[in-house]
Amino acid sequence: MAREYKVEELVDLGFELELVLADSLYGESSYLIQTLDKHKLPWVLAIRNNHGVWMPHNQRVRANKWCKFERTFSNQNSELR
Asked: What is the pLDDT of residues 39-76, one digit of tens each?
């Protein structure tokens, strides 16, 4: 829970967080989500592809077809993904 307390600490110190981004290690923490919601902080959190979630009864998962794209890195190399 130490990672969640960092959010509390930053808010208490007066930091204005525009957006919280996190990988699946943090994204699957219900306590972190509750903390972010408590402070009305916008967030984008990753979850593993096998992580279960509750969907509202009137929604369903939509699987879009993959679209290839070219990724350009900071060293100007690029690759097709």
From this structure: 999 999 998 988 888 888 998 888 888 889 999 999 99
* CA 8/CA 1 separation, integer angstroms: 11
**Domains of the chain by residue range:** 1-49
pLDDT on residue 19? 95
Enumerate the β-bridge partners of residue 22. 45
3-class secondary structure for 7-26?
HHHHHHCCCCCCCEEECHHH
What SS3 state is found at 70?
A: strand
**Residue 43, Cβ density class (10 Å: 0-12 exposed, 13-18 middle, ≥19 buried):** middle
CA distances from 20 to 17, 29, 34, 64, 68 (A): 7, 14, 13, 26, 28
